[in-house]
């Protein structure tokens, strides 16, 4: 995946400064600001523009790395090793472009940097205040993306809802940027238009109030994107335009979609990109129309599957599906590539035991054991892996999923009684998964993991080498513990082979069992790298193996034939 799209076509606005588009939220959280931002970015990118998206999170954590997934969903990891908000995953999946540390800023990080400057005496004895010092730091974090003149548009999503105490400095920074450069700055307000069933009516009042709140803070939104379960009538659009002081074409409907991947097309129908461009003074007659052919091709394959495959996702945060967002999306991308509907069965690892494993997993065509931290639910993961390994069910382990596969093999094939990961059992007699020596003294919980992209060489003749079609790769990591090299020869003799090795540190990054129809596990997280236009080869091969192993197909006569893309 390129760090930035290299094709700056004739519609590029190079030569002019980057333009800044802010996306704020009103009335309620969870309206899908990330998806709307990513969709707008997609439409602009599809016209040949160079676009980046940034998420500003008003919470005080320095990064989401220390947040429990129940709090905030998955922690997404960038190639440069930043632990970020899951919205960055949407940005990468939609745009097929890598994001970096600069694309996710939190209040914690802003304060940390201001306080560090104060300690270094950089404020020359001044009283350090929210305005101007915090707001300047916020503006700097936004403008840093524009100043690299790599991007025509910087889209900045402000987390939270207008009116939250935490987001006040961010809105103030937006106000200042708009005031300093009104021609190159635009504010989109995403809001909710609730439907009152009893009255049979859509209601605009909450939106009027949230726009009023923005106005009190000195910001007039240019465009309203209205989340709604029912189409906006012309009179509702007029009312919203009139009372919120925006032009009629700037009221954009965002109706509930069947899939998030429909949203760019829905936004195009509503002409969101055209309104944005004309408000930023771009002559529409001179720019390319969006080219969304590949996107539409993906959607067609996604919506018209030839068969269904049942994949069990074994994890301990399954109640909140956002905890495994990138895995679910990577499975969807692979499914579309194979014209296969991937039905994910979310299975809580704490509910699996030797006794019920057949009943819980027996109907599945493939088993994926998810990443995670800590001991809760480990036994269920080990049972699931044992079941997949001994019943020839396609298995894919990711990070903790790989570590559990190693432990299961050590115990049940190598007869190393009580073998474990030292994360779960510190004084196990057989620490087949262990901390690297230099990690042992670290006590700070933030940023002490192996994070971001590391190289990995793939063994000749291995399944992974064939799947990737190359001899060396780079994949993203987020973990502390590693395969213990001391046991490697024993594992390999018994049939579990280390087929991916870090060429620098020689750490084991991939294991596979060649005698099994499909048993692959990775220490890294391939799910972060899967995008709509570049589905990840490991997910494709896993879903393909599950289809081949599966009980039947819906529309296709021959499974192998149906998989030919
Ligand atoms: N808890 C394990 C480790 O720290 C695995 C982490 C993960 O699955 N992301 O190594």
Describe the overall structure.
This protein has 565 residues and is α/β, with parallel strands linked by helices. The chain contains 19 helices and 23 strands. It has a nine-stranded mixed β-sheet with strand order 13-12-14-15-23-22-21-18-19, with helices on both faces. Strands 5-2-6-1-7-10-11 form a seven-stranded parallel β-sheet, sandwiched between helices. Helix 1 (33-45) crosses helix 9 (263-269). The longest helix is centred in the first third of the chain and has 18 residues, at 130-147. The protein is globular. Bound molecules: glutamine. The site of glutamine (GLN) has 11 residues, from helix 15 and strand 19.
Task: Summarize the SSE layout with pairings.
Layout: E1 19-25, H1 33-45, E2 51-57, H2 69-72, E3 76-77, E4 83-84, H3 87-95, E5 104-106, H4 107-119, H5 130-147, E6 153-158, H6 168-180, E7 185-192, E8 195-196, E9 201-202, H7 205-216, E10 223-228, H8 234-244, E11 251-255, H9 263-269, H10 272-279, H11 293-303, E12 307-315, H12 325-337, E13 340-348, H13 357-361, E14 366-369, H14 378-390, E15 395-398, H15 400-412, E16 420-421, E17 431-435, E18 450-458, H16 463-468, E19 472-479, E20 481-483, H17 488-494, E21 497-501, E22 508-512, E23 519-522, H18 537-549, H19 559-562
Parallel strand pairs: 1-6, 1-7, 2-5, 2-6, 7-10, 10-11, 12-13, 12-14, 14-15, 15-23, 16-17
Antiparallel strand pairs: 3-4, 8-9, 17-20, 18-19, 18-21, 21-22, 22-23
Helix pairs in contact: 1-3, 1-9, 4-5, 5-6, 11-12, 12-18, 14-15
The protein binds glutamine (GLN).
* Helix percentage: 25-40%
Rg computed from alpha carbons, rounded to a whole number of angstroms = 25 Å
* Average pLDDT: 91
Largest sheet: 9 strands, mixed
Instruction: Briefly note the structural class of the backbone.
Output: alpha/beta
């Amino acid at each position: 995946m390129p760090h930035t799209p290299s094709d700056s076509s004739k519609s590029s606005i190079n030569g002019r400064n980057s333009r800044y588009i802010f996306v704020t939220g009103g009335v309620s959280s969870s309206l899908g600001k990330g998806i709307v931002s990513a969709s707008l970015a997609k439409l602009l990118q599809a016209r040949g523009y160079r676009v980046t998206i940034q998420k500003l999170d008003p919470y005080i954590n320095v990064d989401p790395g220390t947040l429990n997934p129940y709090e905030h969903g998955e922690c997404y990891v960038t190639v440069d090793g930043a632990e970020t908000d899951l919205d960055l995953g949407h940005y990468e999946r939609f745009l097929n472009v890598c994001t970096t540390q600069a694309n996710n800023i939190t209040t914690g990080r802003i304060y940390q940097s201001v306080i560090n400057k104060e300690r270094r005496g950089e404020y020359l004895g001044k009283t350090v205040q929210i305005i101007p010092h915090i707001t300047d730091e916020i503006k700097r974090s936004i403008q840093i993306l524009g100043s690299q003149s790599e991007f025509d548009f910087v889209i900045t999503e402000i987390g939270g809802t207008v009116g939250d105490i935490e987001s006040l400095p961010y809105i103030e920074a937006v106000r200042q940027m708009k005031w300093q450069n009104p021609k190159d700055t635009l504010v989109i307000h995403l809001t909710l238009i609730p439907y009152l069933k009893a009255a049979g009516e859509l209601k605009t009042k909450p939106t009027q109030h949230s726009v009023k709140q923005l106005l009190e803070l000195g910001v007039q939104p240019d465009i309203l994107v209205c989340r709604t379960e029912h189409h906006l009538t012309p009179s509702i659009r007029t009312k919203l335009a009139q009372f919120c002081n925006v032009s009629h074409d700037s009221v954009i409907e965002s109706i509930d979609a069947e899939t998030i991947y429909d949203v760019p097309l829905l936004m195009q129908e509503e002409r969101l990109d055209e309104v944005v461009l004309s408000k930023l003074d771009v002559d529409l007659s001179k720019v390319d129309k969006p080219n969304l052919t590949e996107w539409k091709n993906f959607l067609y394959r996604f919506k018209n599957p030839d068969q269904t495959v049942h994949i069990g996702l074994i994890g301990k945060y399954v109640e909140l599906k956002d905890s495994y967002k990138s895995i679910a999306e990577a499975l969807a991308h692979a499914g579309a590539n194979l014209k296969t509907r991937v039905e994910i069965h979310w299975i809580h690892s704490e509910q699996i035991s030797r006794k019920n494993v057949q009943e819980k997993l027996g109907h599945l065509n493939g088993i994926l054991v998810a990443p995670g931290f800590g001991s809760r639910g480990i036994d269920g993961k080990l049972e699931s892996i044992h079941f997949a390994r001994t019943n020839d069910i396609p298995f894919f382990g990711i990070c903790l999923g790989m570590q559990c596969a190693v432990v299961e093999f050590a115990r049940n094939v190598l007869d190393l009684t009580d073998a474990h990961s030292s994360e779960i059992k510190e004084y196990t007699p057989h620490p087949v998964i262990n901390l690297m020596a230099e990690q042992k003294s670290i006590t700070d919980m933030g940023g002490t993991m192996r994070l971001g992209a590391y190289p990995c060489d793939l063994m000749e003749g291995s399944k992974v080498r064939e799947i990737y079609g190359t001899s060396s790769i780079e994949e993203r990591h987020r973990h502390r513990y590693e395969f213990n090299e001391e046991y490697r020869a024993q594992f390999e003799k018994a049939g579990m082979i280390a087929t991916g090795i870090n060429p620098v540190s020689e750490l084991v990054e991939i294991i596979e069992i060649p005698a099994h129809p499909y048993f692959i596990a990775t220490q890294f997280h391939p799910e972060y790298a899967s995008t709509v236009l570049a589905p990840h080869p490991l997910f494709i091969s896993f879903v393909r193996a599950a289809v081949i192993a599966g009980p039947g197909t819906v529309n296709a006569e021959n499974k192998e034939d149906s998989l030919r893309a």
